[in-house]
Design goal:
heterodimer; A: mainly alpha; 3 helical TM bundles of succinate and fumarate reductases; 2 domains; two-stranded antiparallel ribbon; 69% helix; extended; B: alpha+beta; Ubiquitin-like (UB roll); Fumarate Reductase Iron-sulfur Protein, Chain B, domain 2; five-stranded mixed beta sheet; 7 strands; 13% strand
């Protein structure tokens, strides 16, 4: 290419992405809603850490913490957090078969089986956690 | 349905105006017409200056992707009657996410450059001589990548992806799906080279799995699924290299 040759460059028109692009279609709004449920996941993790801290600190601290989380506003908040956590978890699990292409003996494992395995694992872990939390309380 | 349909077409003529406008055309409401037929009617009979890209008219070449009533579609595969309503005109714009060159034509050079970056072709360590014949594959080996090989580079997935216009460096759905297509091909040996490109921030990790790329894909390629599989593979490779550093990747 000679030095005098200039590459053609069109005079572009670039469209700006509006701030509220996620209101343009229901699928985008659903996506952003799911992303926001990550805040509930973070809150749940912090709450768990604080509860462990309260248990290990002293009986008085734990009682104070219990009173706080059993108050009506906290219960309402935690019901909302639980709903967000369930939405996050279910949508996450439902996407699993699309991310996992497993082959056994040269044949693709059906999506339904991948999904069922994830739900079973979730149920097993949940039962384990409930057992951990309730043992000794009966 | 009425006898005519009104099209509201995006016009951008850089030699005349800085900003684009919308121009209305009335076209016959033919039942068998696709949107592309209506646009060709405008170009042939109403305004020859209207510019748009098309070639095969049968959903194979991937040239005629446009935004119709806000959705990215192949205009050769979308009936005018399906897009028309008695109240509103059919709104036709170029594909979102690409800079507009003129009217309905977007500049796709960025996509082409990305295809090159991910080496969307078969990479071989060594070529066998012609005398040894073709590289054979079993039906099972073909089945592993066939879905991704159906991509026609129409770029509807880029237009549907909200990440691409926000982060133009993102390699994007089709290029990653095509990289996966060659990775899964038993004749290919380029997976490691592609992983170097795709495991960067502007590769698979820019995707937040909105999933719209797969919804609009006219060939059911499922680029969103391909990207998530790639993420899983990259994570597994990373763990393997952490646990068994002597094995390499």
């Amino acid at each position: 290419m000679s030095k005098s040759y200039r590459l053609y460059h069109p005079k572009w028109y670039r469209r700006r992405m509006p701030i509220f692009w996620w209101l343009r279609a229901w699928s985008y709004t659903r996506f952003i809603t799911r992303e926001l449920t990550s805040l509930a996941v973070g809150y749940g993790a912090v709450l768990l850490l604080v509860s462990i801290w309260a248990v290990t600190r002293s009986e008085e601290t734990y009682e104070h913490f219990s009173d706080l989380v059993l108050s009506t506003p906290a219960l309402v908040l935690h019901l909302l957090v639980l709903a967000a956590l369930l939405l996050h978890t279910l949508t996450w699990l439902n996407l699993a078969p699309r991310a996992m292409a497993l082959y056994v003996g040269g044949r693709r494992v059906p999506d339904a089986l991948v999904l069922a395995a994830h739900y079973l694992a979730w149920a097993a872990v949940s039962v384990g956690v409930v057992w951990l939390l309730t043992r000794g309380t009966a | 349905m009425n006898d005519t349909v009104t099209l509201e077409v995006f016009r951008y003529r850089p030699e005349e105006a800085e900003e684009p406008t919308f121009e209305r055309f009335r076209v016959p409401a033919r039942r068998q017409w696709m949107i592309l037929d209506a646009l060709n009617h405008v170009k042939d009979d109403l305004d020859g200056s209207l510019s748009f890209r098309w070639a095969c008219r049968m959903g194979v070449c991937g040239s005629c992707g446009m935004t119709v009533n806000g959705k990215p579609v192949l205009t050769c595969a979308t009936y005018l009657s399906d897009a028309a309503s008695s109240r509103d005109p059919v709104r036709i714009e170029p594909l979102h996410g690409f800079p507009v060159v003129r009217d309905l034509i977007g500049d796709i050079r960025d996509f082409i450059a990305k295809l090159k970056r991910v080496k969307a072709w078969i990479v071989r360590d060594d070529e066998k001589p012609l005398s040894e014949g073709a590289y054979l594959q079993t039906p099972a080996e073909l089945a592993r990548y066939k879905q991704y090989s159906m991509c026609i580079n129409c770029m509807l997935c880029y237009a549907a992806c909200p990440i691409y216009p926000l982060e133009p460096e993102f390699i994007g759905p089709a290029a990653i799906a095509l990289a996966q297509r060659y990775n899964l091909d038993s004749r290919d040996a380029g997976a490691e080279q592609r992983m170097d490109v795709l495991s960067r921030d502007d590769g698979i990790w820019s995707c937040t799995f909105v999933g719209e790329c797969s919804v609009v894909c006219p060939k059911n390629v499922d680029p969103a699924g391909a990207i998530q599989r790639y993420k899983l593979q990259a994570t597994a490779d990373w763990f393997k290299s952490l646990l068994m550093p002597w094995r390499g990747r």
